[in-house]
Design brief:
198 residues; alpha/beta; Rossmann fold
């Protein structure tokens, strides 16, 4: 989807996504010691804000101006500090070797563009830092529910693991997510990796 399409989607409702942090993310990072975190494709900021409440110093990036405005307003209401940035991830270059945690949740763009974003995300990790990606799995098209219908922007856990050379893959698996009102679960790809300590 184009930026203006996302702006329209975000503007059409009070909250496009649940205000709660993603449960798979919570399971993967709740035990980590707070440090600096980068949330790429942060949307309305629910995950970034949750991290900030735990003591993380968080930067959230999304290319929808409407989503970023909503995220800033919510952070202010919740009295937490998050540095929200409106930028296109395809050209966004985070500081190298800076972040203890980098998130990429539900970013679905073409394979070549995704590879560039993942390269930047991996480069942004500090030594010993953790990377977490979650998104709609390719099998969701036939066996799951919801999500994008274009197979060119979907992936498997193995696809993502292959695109992260230099990181130690700790987890690359499919996870099932309940979708209210649907008989089938959504199928997501979950990848957790770590930059080796220097």
């Amino acid at each position: 989807m184009r930026r203006d399409d996302w702006d329209k989607r975000y503007a059409s409702v009070e909250s496009l996504w649940s205000p709660k942090p993603n449960r798979f993310l919570v399971a993967e990072v709740a035990a980590l010691a707070p440090g600096r975190a980068l949330d790429l494709a942060c949307g309305e900021g629910q995950n970034a804000i949750w991290l900030a409440t735990l003591g993380w110093e968080v930067t959230g990036v999304d290319y929808s101006e409407v989503a970023i405005a909503k995220a800033k307003a919510r952070a202010e209401r919740d009295a937490v500090r998050v540095d929200f940035v409106c930028a296109d991830l395809v050209s966004y270059e985070p500081a190298a070797s800076t972040f203890d945690l980098v998130l990429v949740l539900y970013l679905h763009i073409s394979g070549l563009e995704r590879r560039g974003v993942l390269d930047s995300a991996a480069a942004a990790l500090a030594p010993g830092g953790t990377f977490v990606l979650l998104g709609h799995d390719s099998t969701n098209l036939t066996d799951g529910v919801g999500g994008p219908s274009d197979p060119a922007i979907l992936y498997t856990p193995d696809d993502i693991a292959y695109e992260l050379p230099g990181l130690e893959i700790e987890k690359a698996e499919r996870v099932l997510r309940d979708v209210r009102g649907e008989e089938r679960d959504a199928i997501d790809a979950l990848v957790k990796a770590r930059r080796p300590p220097s």
